[in-house]
Amino acid sequence: MQVPSHVEYERATSVEHALTLLARFGPESRVLAGGHSLIPMMKLRLAQPETLIDINGISGLSRIAVKGDELRIGALVRHAQLLDSAVAGEHFPILHDAERVIADPIVRNWGTIGGSLCQADPSEDLSAAFGAIRATAVIQGRDGARSVPVREFHLGPYETVVAPDELLTELRMPLRPGGGSAYEKVARRVGDWSVAAAGAVIWLEPGSGTPAVSEAGIGLAAVGAGHFVAGEAEDFLRGRPADDETFARAGQIAAEHCAPTADQRGPVDYKRHLTGELTNRALRRAAARARGREA
């Protein structure tokens, strides 16, 4: 049996208390939220923190609300809570699409949004979804808070901009009328990590006939896309007609510019094919939702 090494445990009662504990125990401490990634790593001794700082008692980090022109999601919001949130699904159906294919009900009942982003797994679905939305991460330190675009949040696999003495507290998403969004994923088994996944957020120009794309966001997971997004495909879409030909070409561009690696989930060519097809599907579905029609 594999068991973690000895670890001390502290329970934070507020954000300020958590930051004090992080400063006291230094970089050898780790924040415990859902724990679904950290605890298995500790059992394998891939992670050996000296102190765990449990933040689950900080109630203010588990809220979903619209404030002004933003949707705000606390870092301690559980996956199941986000999936059940009517306000999140109303403004960004991509979040419900992604949550339906994340893990299983047991994991979704306890795993957190902030924990998923901070784990920075290259196959993480919400990183791609929030990247497509162009969300902003709010990071709290003892000297105050700073805002970082999610597209700049991940520095690489399992690495983020959150310093050892900082805490991710919230995700903020700008609200803009007339958009649509969707998420598509292929996995070996239900709830498994992605073989490839694509999310799309799209806004259309008003008018009759085939509208043009005014703005788009495309997020990719598990295929080596820089910062989980397909920037070249987004640039291609702007100003072009929102039709099947445009979306198919955007999918090809996304596939050409990602960098998947061969592994037990499939070879490179297969993952590129999936990237193109899933991007195409997500864009078509997002455009249908923007027009008020479910794809």
For the secondary structure, the number of strands is 13
The CATH topology name of the largest domain reads Uridine Diphospho-n-acetylenolpyruvylglucosamine Reductase, domain 3
Instruction: Kindly provide the name of the CATH class of the largest domain.
Output: Alpha Beta
CATH architecture of the largest domain: 2-Layer Sandwich
Q: Major beta sheet, specifics?
A: 5 strands, antiparallel
Estimate percent helicity: 25-40%
- The total of helices stands at 11
Strand content: 25-35%
Widest sheet: strand order? 4-5-10-6-7
Fold and architecture overview:
There is one protein chain. This protein has helices at 15-25, 38-43, 79-84, 86-91, 93-100, 105-110, 113-119, 125-133, 231-237, 244-257, 268-290; strands at 8-11, 29-32, 51-54, 64-67, 70-74, 136-141, 144-149, 154-156, 159-160, 167-174, 179-187, 194-204, 213-221. By secondary structure, it is an alpha+beta fold. The chain has 3 domains: 8-54, Uridine Diphospho-n-acetylenolpyruvylglucosamine Reductase, domain 2; 60-174, Uridine Diphospho-n-acetylenolpyruvylglucosamine Reductase, domain 3; 179-290, CO dehydrogenase flavoprotein, C-terminal domain (Enolase-like, domain 1), CATH 3.30.390.50. It has a 5-stranded antiparallel beta sheet. Strands 1-3-2 form a 3-stranded parallel beta sheet, covered by helices on one side. The radius of gyration is 19 Å and the shape is globular. The N and C termini lie far apart (48 Å).
